[in-house]
Amino acid sequence: MSSGSHLSKELHDLIKSIGETRSKQEEDKIIIKEVQQLKTKLNEKNMPQKKVREMLIKAIYIEMLGHDASFVHINAIHLTQSKSLALKRLGYLCCSLFLDNDSELLILLVATLQKDLTSTNVHIVVNALTAVGKLISKTFVNALTEPVLKLLTHSTDIVRKKALMVMQIIRQLNQDCIAEQDYDDRIRRGIQDKEPSVMGAAFNLYHEELKKGAVNKFKPLTGTFVSMLKQIIEHKLHKDYDYHRFPAPWLQIKLLQILTLLGANDLKVSEQIYEVLGTTLRRADDTTINIGYAVTYQCVKCISGIYPQQSLLEQAANSVSRFLKSENNNLKYLGINALTQIVSISQKYVLEHQMTIVDCLESNDDTLKKETLELLYKMTNEQNCEVIIQKLIHFLKTSSDSNFKKDLFVKISLLNEKHAPTQEWFIKTANTLFEYGSEFIDNDVRNNFFKLLIDNFNDIGSEFGVFITEIYSELLKNDLQDNILKIVCWVIGEIGSQIYDQDPNKLNELTQLIILKLDSQLESETTISWILTCLAKLQSARAFQMFDQTRAIFQKYMQSKNLDCQQRAIDFYTLAKFNAALKGSQFITVDPKMQFLDAYVQQERQRGAQPYNPSLQVKAAALGSATEAPSLNFIPYSDTKYGGNKTGTFGTEENKLTTQNPSAPTIAGPWDDTGYNQKQPPPPKPTIATPMSIGSTTGIGSNSSGQTTTKTTMQSMGSGQMGLNTNQSQSTYVPSVRPLPPKEDPNLKEKQKLANQLFAPISQTQQQPSQSTQKKGITTMAASKQMNSNINTNQPQQPKQTAQVLNLLEIDEPLPIQSSQQPIIGTSQGYVQQPQIINQKPIIAQQQQLWSQPTAQIQSIPQQQIKSYIPANINVDQYEQLWERNQNIKEITLQSKIKSEQDFRKMIQTININIIEVIDQEIICAGANAESKSCVLLYGSYSLNGSLELKINSTDPKDAEYILALIKRQFC
Amino acid sequence: MINFILMVNKQGQTRLAQYFQFLSVKERMTLEGELIRKCLSRSETQCSFLEHRGYKIIYRRYASLYFIIGMDLEEENEMAYLEFIHNLVETLDKYFENVCELDIMFNIEKAHYILEEMVMNGQIVETNKTQILAPIHVLDKAKDE
């Protein structure tokens, strides 16, 4: 039949010549010539349809071979109106080959399609359905829905089959065309069709619905599908459906896919499937032909996809081992994939195939290697991880396929992280991995690694620090790729500088090594930035001595053409100046009691000044660093807490700062390493300090925002954002370098997390070694702080819950007056407002704002009162949490003078607590005992006739009594 | 779903291409070129599956002609599609009697019709050769008359 004798000589010759071409150029030449000829022929009028037919076949070739034949598209559309069945079909075929579903020309087809779909000639209908299936688009789906749906009950099976498939497309294009119930009914009739072809088509529709997630509504059909599968495997279908004497394999596969989805995680449904599944697998296994393997493979997938059953799993494992033992790579491929499925249920079946798996990894077949890698990755556990990782690293070393290597790199690092047996092993593996896969180290990889290191460092402490610093300083002695050098710089800067904080020799040695690297061959300028940052971190160590050298280096790079480098050099140079100055004033002692003021105080007292009243809140502040923070707390502090607790309320450090003479900031000065690292969470978008803001650090002692800024600089470097900075600064001139281009935003959260973990835990380990194993970060800081101050409360501690709840409270906790320069804990969370200092009693009308604005109060005690209260600015949630925690509830209903909200407010004002929320006639308020800081919560409900219902919930029952008495006295 | 079915010969000349997701002529050319190069670079012993540009590719060679199917990555039974290719070839063979590359070239529209009967909307709808060929025979008859 290959003679082509049915074709005109012209077309015959064309196709023959195309077939004989030996190069693309030759082919193009023929096609271009043909296109020109066709264009001239187009002008011929009344071209016989046979000619049009040949023209279109030529057009199929022209487009298939990569040229444009759009000029004949319209002829294809005309041809669909032909009376000849064959020409009509060719017209439709060409339309579907040439036209995009969005083509405007398609609209010209709608009328023809509508007409053909309703034709009495079944062949025309079949043609039209085939065409609709390919050409239908959103724009005219409505116009064709009805005629198609009508055809679902047509007397010819092929029409019903095609109509079903078209119905599927219609629903994909526009859900509203067919109601869900109607659709379900129609596909159900589809599977009940007496013709297997129609039934088979309907399986596609079910499978799609199930994949979309509509599993539950089809579960009752499980029995139907099971019996269909049973009939198929029992050769109940006509033998025309057999393929190599195997009964309807593709239908079997479709049914197995459907059953897998139905039976997943459902024992009841799965139980209906087990038997037929076993039989299907046995029968498929008995064949030794490809299609049998395909069905076997689908059975294995089904067995591992539904609710697991032991004997079936064994059976599946047997089949899989046959695949794996085969010499044929296609079967091996199936075997590996099937094993990956089974492993997710039980690892034991892998063991016997370990060698095969390793062979597959060494195979010269990339596809097989890739699938095997996936399997290995899935089967790794603590026991086999060393072996597997070693094997994988071997492949990383030897492979030349970069996609495969990248895949390997990612998987090894994940496995190492997850299963590494020891710290040492972890670090060494990571280093090997970085060495052989340095091209894959990106910001994410680095950040992740740093995070792990710092976590471990915090957990294990200096032992680990010394260990990794040693490893990495050893590495420094070799030639390093830039990507690894960056990591080394980070480790030395971040961890080395802490470990050898007091060891000048070690610091000198590290600094020397790092400085040497500046002279080595570097691949990119960003690496210099990393080195500079490392030096800056080193010079912040207490025992650092090589200021002359570092200053010279910074000075040199201040001229750098790379903006990022230049900016950093300027910043670090400025810092170095201060650092050196600070070291010089190391030993000035500060008198926390400020006895030097005694004479002055004495003098003023003699002139008639009021004596200092320690019951006022000022007391806390005046006592300076030795006291507890004067912040408003809702939990009562016992007196012993004063002076004793240094566990990290931020007020502590703050007091130092404010009470000290700015010129002698040595003890808690920002450059003291302890203070330096203390509890300064990174702001949400770290910006490199501009020289301006650096300048502001001159007032070190009094300006803590200066610290935050400079420290941030290092964080942003530590978090590895430099690559991007540089790119940006190279492309456009930006006067002040912003290290966080918008592109980085998706990673921002991760980076913040990293930054938090870089900082918060350091201060914690130094202050509270016992807590270092907890999860690090602001959250814990806040929580642990609150827990500490909670020690003396009556409530039993529920650590887990408390931590969470308290953290909430912590963030909005009102700050004391003195905290105006306080770095704000939790800035990075973005929702904490700057503390505002309100010296006056909060005006109740301002409540809306006050809820979230921490305020502080110094309230003079009303004269006749013994107890005094201060308002607590908490929100409703916090109120509720506190209410839950305090159990001393005093409930009473009184007849009072209070008949309006205004009256009620007056009362609250008199007590001097705060209204939290007003809902109709119900009001909730909160405050704290000015002295003991114990918390007082009040719920009141008034009515117009003066009946007043009160619930007072206070940590100290005496508060409740006192307030009640006060109300009775003044308002009843 | 199946995204495309191609027949490309060893010289990289496309002999038949049917796409179930529209690609422009230029995109098709590039894709077909890349695929045939990849297929040609693989040996007989390597498996018949690969991944390319987010498609799962299944190919099978008959004499000088490669049959290539491109599917969604989530499609799960590669072997079933490999055998589907064989079923397609058997069907072509049944229709053309000892099919060869030239048969497909001289009767390109028929080859398309056969595929249209077997795959609709990217899914296998018919694998029964009698059913597949019935409408094609009708066309032939109609023309003869």
TrEMBL record, chain A:
Top-level taxonomic group: Eukaryota
Residue ranges of the region described as Disordered: 653-673, 698-718
Biased composition (Polar residues): 653-664
Low complexity bias (residue ranges): 698-710
Protein localization: Endomembrane system; Membrane, Coated pit
Membrane topology classification: Peripheral membrane protein
Domain AP-4 complex subunit epsilon-1 C-terminal: 870-972
Keywords linked to the UniProt accession: Coated pit, Endocytosis, Membrane, Protein transport, Transport
BP-aspect Gene Ontology terms: intracellular protein transport; vesicle-mediated transport
Signal peptide: none
Chief place where the protein resides: membrane
Main function: Adaptins are components of the adaptor complexes which link clathrin to receptors in coated vesicles. Clathrin-associated protein complexes are believed to interact with the cytoplasmic tails of membrane proteins, leading to their selection and concentration.
Similarity comment text for this entry: Belongs to the adaptor complexes large subunit family.
Official protein name in the record: AP-2 complex subunit alpha
Organism this protein belongs to: Paramecium sonneborni
TrEMBL record, chain B:
InterPro entries linked to this entry: AP_complex_ssu (IPR016635), AP_mu_sigma_su (IPR022775), Clathrin_sm-chain_CS (IPR000804)
Keyword Metal-binding: no
GO biological process: intracellular protein transport; vesicle-mediated transport
Compartment(s): Endomembrane system
UniProt GO cellular component terms: endomembrane system; membrane coat
Ranges in a coiled coil: none
UniProt-recorded name of the protein: AP complex subunit sigma
Superkingdom of origin organism: Eukaryota
Organism field: Paramecium primaurelia
Keywords assigned by UniProt, alphabetized: Membrane, Protein transport, Transport
Family statement: Belongs to the adaptor complexes small subunit family.
Keyword Zinc: no
